[in-house]
Structure formats: structure tokens, C-alpha cells
Amino acid sequence: MNGASVAVCNLGIALTSRPILSKVSFEVSPGEILAVIGPSGIGKSTLLRALAGLVSAREGDVSVRNGAERGRIAVVFQEPRLLPWLRVADNVAFVLQGPRQQRKGRASAALASVRLQDSEGAWPRQLSGGMAQRAALARALATAPHLLLLDEPFASVDALTRMELQEYVAALWREHEFTVVLVTHDIDEALYLADRILVLGGDPASVHAELEVPIPRPRSRTNPQMLALREPLLRTLAETLSPPTP
How far apart are CA 32 and CA 27, in angstroms? Predict the structure, then answer.
């Protein structure tokens, strides 16, 4: 598995006739982790759904390529979205194609990669919030994606579980080298995981700013470089909340 390249050019999206995104342009290199932040309701999740092909563009273009071919895309949402009538392993296998035994083997391998091998036969209701999100990660991983889209996947868990899940994502990324686009409200999460951060702002939204995160991995959450980047990122985010100057 390797990462896809992503190119977004002058993307414009309107929902129920209201413009949400306008002239959004950026690129993501294969294997890069890009975080997207911005005020609530600015259009971050809409952008992610456009990358996944779940929302049609009014204008512009989105390209996800793995070499000469279209890249495989997987999405992890804020809620795990596990089917309650299927056991955990069957939830993972449900998104796969091929003979049953082959699908079962891929599901088992994916669950083992997030340390849920002992929960294959469990029902979703028997999982904690963190375990359910790990199962959702396993389901995405089982499809061997070139591009992994994360739509605030850790927002509903406690702080310690959130950090644990961040570590799982970092470890899976190191192992599989897929490209990641992460939507988050958590500045510290963006700084810890991403190579680059896009800040959306405006109405309709466009790319307000871009910040490189040139910190070697593995990263420490108390790295002075990370703390130094936090303040300018907060200022930039605050700018998107300020009313435009007349």
C-alpha cells in the first residue's frame, strides 16, 4: 500500500443553493498527512466529502491518483457507524469484496493491527467508544486505501482515549504509508499528526492560510517546536473569526 496524490483546483460547492466552498485549491503529496482546521460550520467536513466523492462540486476539480490510476479512498467518520446486527469482524468484512474466507482473513488482519483481535466476535454494543473507533479504523484499513480521510474521528472520546487513537493512526501511517487528510477542531491534534495544516476561513470558505509542521517523527507532545507553532496557529484561526475590515 502506498499513498495517493491529491489535487484540488478552484473547488466550489453549494448546498441547498448556499455557497459553502469557493475557489479552494491545494495539493497533497503521496504519504503526506494534511490537517484541515477552521471554525465550526465553515465547510471542513464538506471538503472531506468532496474528496471522497460523496458531494458534487459546483465548479473546479478534485483528483485522487495512485500513479496512473484513481486511488482507493477510505473514510472514518466522527461516529464509528458500526452495524449493530453484525459482529465486529463481520462489520469490517462487510466493506470487502471477494470469497468469504479471504474477506474474513483481511478483516482479522485489520483488527489485529489495531489490537482488537480478541474482539472479533463481539457485538458493537459491547465495545467502548475508543474500541469502536479502532474498529472503524480497522474497517477503513482493510480496504487497503491510498487515501485515508478522517472526519473528526476522535471528537466523541475522552482525552486519554483520543491520544491513544492518535497513536494508532500514527503507527498505521508509518506502516502503510497512505496519504491522510484529517479534519479536526483540535489544534494540538493537528500539530501532533500533520506535516501541514490548512486553515479554512471566509464565507464561502477558501484556504485562509497554510502552515508547515517541520517537526521530525516520532513527535513528543511537549516538543518546544510544537508549542512554538501553537501560538501563530491560534492567531491565524482567530483571524477567521474576526469580521472583515470595511
Answer: 10
Domain chopping of the chain, boundaries: 5-72+145-241, 84-143
Residue type for position 126? Q
Report helix, strand and coil shares of the chain as percent, to nearest 5: 35, 25, 35
pLDDT exceeds cutoff 70 at 244: no
What does the alpha-carbon distance between residue 151 and residue 226 come to, in Å, rounded to a whole number? 23
Model confidence pLDDT, tens digit, residues 170-208: 999 999 999 999 999 999 999 999 999 999 999 999 999
Check if the beta carbon of residue 179 is closer than 8 Å to that of residue 4. yes
Which three-class secondary structure state does DSSP give residue 166? helix
pLDDT tens for each residue of 108-142:
999 999 999 999 999 999 999 999 999 999 999 99
Structurally, at CATH architecture level, domain 5-72+145-241 sits in 3-Layer(aba) Sandwich (3.40)
Tens digit of pLDDT for each residue in 48-107?
999 999 998 999 999 999 987 889 999 999 889 999 999 999 999 999 988 899 999 999
What whole-number distance in Å separates Cα of residue 184 and Cα of residue 176? 22
Cell, residue 157: 472520546
Burial of 195 (0-12, 13-18, 19+ CB in 10 A): middle
CA 32 to chain centre: 12
Are 156 and 80 spatial neighbours (Cβ–Cβ below 8 Å)? no
* Beta carbons of 73 and 53 less than 8 angstroms apart: yes
